[in-house]
């Protein structure tokens, strides 16, 4: 924070990379408020955020439980930010969508995650294996085997495979009897 204050006192304006790095650092230090402050300063200084900046901001907001406030209409938080990206001339990419889907899943908002997943498939970009694995894990954790199986089949038909954490979750659930071995076969 001291370096940022010194930069501001000397009236130095960083570039997109500088601000993005500062935002990421504050989120890594669990300092959501300062990360948002740096983002606001970036905008007020006229420095254009990149899609990487927005992805870091959205990821930090979702991981710091700011998604719920965002759903209540707080402009500084994740959902509203995501919804305004197109207005800012920034097209959300697969990381942007997957970050928001993951945030919804962490909050137990599977319907919202599913709706965003469907919008992603309709409007682009196409989901990747991370997107599928995020949704599969959320459905498995909630005991929704049918939705998990459907997503696994869809993921497989798109040429994607399960990742280590998905395999780990399936293995744990096979071991304790919540799943049958057909799930493991679907992932291989």
UniProtKB/TrEMBL annotation:
Keyword set includes Repeat: yes
UniProt key word Metal-binding: no
InterPro entries: Mito_RNA_Proc_CCM1 (IPR051114), PPR_rpt (IPR002885), TPR-like_helical_dom_sf (IPR011990)
Keywords attached to this entry: Repeat
PPR repeats, residue ranges: 15-49, 93-127, 128-162
Family: Belongs to the PPR family. P subfamily.
Protein name: Pentatricopeptide repeat-containing protein At1g63070, mitochondrial-like
Naturally occurring in which organism (per UniProt): Camelina sativa (False flax)
């Amino acid at each position: 924070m001291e370096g940022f204050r010194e930069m501001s006192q000397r009236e130095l304006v960083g570039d997109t990379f500088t601000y993005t790095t500062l935002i990421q650092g504050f989120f890594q230090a669990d300092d959501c408020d300062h990360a948002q402050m740096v983002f606001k300063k970036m905008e007020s200084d006229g420095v254009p955020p990149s899609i990487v900046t927005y992805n870091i901001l959205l990821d930090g907001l979702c991981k710091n439980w700011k998604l719920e406030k965002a759903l209540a209409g707080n402009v500084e938080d994740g959902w509203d930010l995501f919804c305004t990206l197109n207005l800012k001339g920034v097209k959300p990419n697969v990381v942007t969508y997957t970050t928001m889907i993951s945030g919804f899943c962490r909050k137990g908002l599977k319907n919202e995650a599913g709706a965003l997943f469907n919008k992603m498939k309709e409007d682009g970009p196409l989901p990747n294996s991370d997107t599928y694995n995020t949704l599969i894990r959320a459905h498995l954790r909630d005991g929704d085997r049918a939705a998990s199986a459907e997503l696994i089949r869809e993921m497989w038909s798109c040429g994607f495979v399960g990742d280590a954490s998905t395999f780990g979750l399936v293995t744990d659930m096979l071991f304790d009897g919540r799943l049958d071995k057909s799930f493991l076969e679907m992932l291989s």
